[in-house]
Amino acid sequence: MSLKKKKSLDFEVNLIPFIDLLSTCICFLLLTAVWVNVASMNVKQAVGGQAAEAGTKKPTMWVAMAPNGDLTLDVKDARVPAKLAKFSIPGTQGKPNLELLGQAVSQLKSSEPALNTALIQPTAASVYEDIIGLMDGFKKSGVTDLGVSPL
Q1: What pLDDT shows up at residue 36?
Q2: pTM of the model
Q3: DSSP-derived pairing of the beta strands 86-89 and 117-121
Q4: Distance CA 120, CA 68 (A)
Q5: Is residue 74 part of a domain?
Q6: What is the CATH number of the domain that holds 109?
Q7: What pLDDT score does 33 carry?
Q8: Residue 26 lies in a domain
Q9: Which of 59, 87, 95, 106 is deepest in the core (most CB within 10 A)?
Q10: How far is CA 64 from each of CA 13, 23, 60, 74, 128, rounded to the nearest angstrom?
């Protein structure tokens, strides 16, 4: 008769490293969820983002800025008189003339009330202050959908 030694079924499992790993994973999960929510931005494309069957095109005004402050307004997809469809506004002392711009936009709004979109096309030499001034001028004139096209 041989005597076999029975193995003991009592053993210890160290769960502390496993709990540490799970708590670290939970922290990363929570931080990632919060970061994704904070870092997201709701962006709606102003022109061209809608589907082809979305309807008729909205009238838009493209404003090209020159380095000397001159503005060239080009109205598209609108029924306006020919003299208002494309014209220039001379700048004053290297800055855009916001008074003449306000008058021109009010004339355009009176002939085409649905004109609510303006896209500003700055140059590389355009000053940020001038772009913001243009946007403020458009807002005062009733043009609410504004955009800045990339260089």
Answers
A1: 72
A2: 0.62
A3: unpaired
A4: 15
A5: yes
A6: 3.30.420.270
A7: 83
A8: no
A9: 59
A10: 72, 56, 13, 8, 14
What are 139's two structure tokens?
């807002």
Q: How far apart are CA 62 and CA 72, in angstroms?
A: 8
Q: What is the pLDDT along the chain (151 residues), one digit of tens a residue?
A: 556 777 777 778 889 999 999 999 999 998 888 877 665 555 565 555 555 555 677 888 999 999 898 999 999 888 888 888 888 999 988 899 999 989 989 988 888 888 888 999 999 888 889 999 999 999 998 888 898 887 6
Residue range(s) defining the domain that contains residue 122: 56-148
**Calpha distance 10→18 (Å, rounded):** 20
- Any domain includes 42: no
CA 51, CA 15: separation in Å to the nearest integer? 56
Query: Under 8 Å CB-to-CB from 128, ≥6 apart: which residues?
Result: none
In a domain, 118, yes or no: yes
Sheet holding 60-65, edge to edge: 86-89, 71-76, 60-65, 117-121, 145-148
Q: Length of the chain in residues, anyone?
A: 151
The count of domains in the chain is 1
Residue 29 CA, distance from chain mean position: 29
